[in-house]
Write a structure and sequence with these properties.
234 residues, alpha+beta, 6-stranded antiparallel sheet, 3-stranded mixed sheet, 7 helices, globular
Amino acid sequence: MSQTAFGPYVITLELPPSRVGRRMLAVHERDGSSHVVHAIEVGASRAQQRRSLARVEAWAQATREIPSTLGVQCWSLWAPGRLALVTRYTGSSAGLVTLDSLVAGRGGRLPLSEVVRAMTPLIGTLRAAISKGVVHGPVSMGEVLVDQHGQVCVEHFGLAAALAGRGAGPQDDLSRCLGEEIASIASIAVRLATGRSAGQTWANARANSREAADAAVAAWVRGFVMGGPAVATA
């Protein structure tokens, strides 16, 4: 990639890639604020580029009011076959902080109070997305950004699915995607609380007990996503 700027955003550093493409730290040339430019390959034909821009427009509108998601500030074609999105920079001078990198730096797990603090907004994100029909698929800890105040947000919730045209198919496809999303959020909760995957957590139990336990965790998350009682912190 030869570009050193996207409009007024001057590229200063290559960051680890995201689910949808490359990330680059950028500084606004006028006010010095920090942002991230995301470069996404969308196809070389004009039809592909027009379709991708239309899908991004629809996605941005659909996700505007979904809480705890990283809002996009602007977007446009950057070069033939390449789309650029700009978001705020949530990291520090040391770089972006994702939920998986945070947990790794904390010994692999978090206290229950911090698990609840991280999971509550993620469950709220999924609730709102369901109500608006926004499809994402499995959420990974690498997609959850943590800012300098300890607040979490999901980067580009639903964007990869929108660019791929998902969400307009049969209801059973949507139900499967929802199931994958709920299962992934349940897995994150188990990982944060125990330092192990949901499967590893129950590795020493009988197979049927392990399945029941995993199902209970998924049901717990499903209950909150679908509007269950408030998460208890005690």
